[in-house]
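ENTRY TYPE: protein
CONTENTS: sequence, structure tokens:
***
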Amino acid sequence: MRTIQFSKLLLACLVIFSFSGVGIAIAFRSIFWIIVLIALGFGLMGYGISLKRKRQSY
């Protein structure tokens, strides 16, 4: 069985929390937090994908 990569697990959890936060921000009708959390979520997801591509190229 493979070992757990805790850094990537943490990154995935942060992306999930970010997009969950968007739902909460929508409930509070806060445009500022909606935009910030969407940008943060996509930024973290892009960073994770770039890490995956770098690892696969080796």
User: Anything to note?
Assistant: The chain has a mean pLDDT of 94.
